[in-house]
Amino acid sequence: MSASRVTRIAPTPSGFLHLGNAVNFTLISLLASQWDAETVLRIDDMDSSRSRPEYVDDIFATLEWLEIPWTRGPRERAEFERDFTMSTRTEYYRSQLDLLQKSDLEVFACACSRADLAATGGMRCTGGCRTAGLELIAEQTAMRMRIPEGTFIEMDGESIDLAKAHGDVVLWRRDDLPAYHLVTVIEDRDLGVTDIVRGVDLLDSSALHTWLAPHLNAVNVAEATFIHHALVTDAGGLKLSKSQSAPDLRERTPELLELIRSRAAALLPSP
User: Fold this and answer.
1) What's this model's pTM, rounded to 2 decimal places?
2) Fewer beta carbons under 10 A from the terminal one: N or C of the chain?
3) Which domain, by its residues, includes 112?
């Protein structure tokens, strides 16, 4: 299938999927049908320490139960592990990091930990790493990118202050793995993604990705259509997330399926 529009479903195998994931996937599928867009399945397992085989299996089982089609990407765990896992592409991501280091962006190795940055009350390196000429060394430094003050990106009618929202962005982690922001732009570039549907909590990330994209030759990401939907919350109004142990979907009842579909339909943008 060759489509002028491409969207993607991008779960992480770091826990069993929950209601919020299912509503997001269903909304993406509904929109893809409206757009006559191709849907790609991209399983984001760049953090291999949190990935588990049973979580990967759960992704496929949930998509099958939701009756969500996709045209590119793995169909089951063995194919995913053989041909699609991000864990085998570390050196490829490292080569793409070189693009940023050779650009006009300020990219530098940083020895500051999260605790160091938190102690200074912000997300900027204050330890002199920017001018220290440090090398990227596993377990010792991370690679960061400084966003210039006064960098604003318009997203969904809001003006996002990137420097305030992200500080000095981590591109390569201290544990010698590529960071989320670098990987997701590279993957969306390579997949030819033109439409990205995600929760409103990722508005700041979307703004960063559109700003970063031209420096990675990702024109399609820089020009992509972003749709940010309201979050699926629990009875107390808190966002459902794996980190907060949101109830998973392993009890797949017809009533739950209907709830998911109705919630996704309610999130469809007005024509």
Assistant:
1) 0.91
2) C
3) 90-172
DSSP per-residue string spanning 90-147: HHHHHHHHHHHHTSSSEEEEE---HHHHHHTTSSS--SSGGGTT----TTT-EEEEEP
Q: How many domains does the chain have?
A: 2
In a domain, 225, yes or no: no
Q: Which long-range contacts (CB under 8 A, 24 or more apart) does 159-165 make?
A: 160/203, 160/204, 160/207, 162/204, 162/207, 162/208, 162/211, 165/204, 165/207, 165/208
- Rounded Cα distance between 181 and 218, Å, is 13
Of the candidates 172, 194, 211, which is a domain's last residue?
Answer: 172
> In the β-sheet with 195-199, what is the strand arrangement from edge to edge?
38-41, 6-9, 195-199, 225-229
Instruction: Examine the domain organization and report whether 80 and 95 are in the same domain.
Output: no
Residue 250: predicted pLDDT: 81
In a domain, residue 216? The reply is no
Residue 178 covered by a domain: no
Residue carrying the six token digits 């069993």: 16
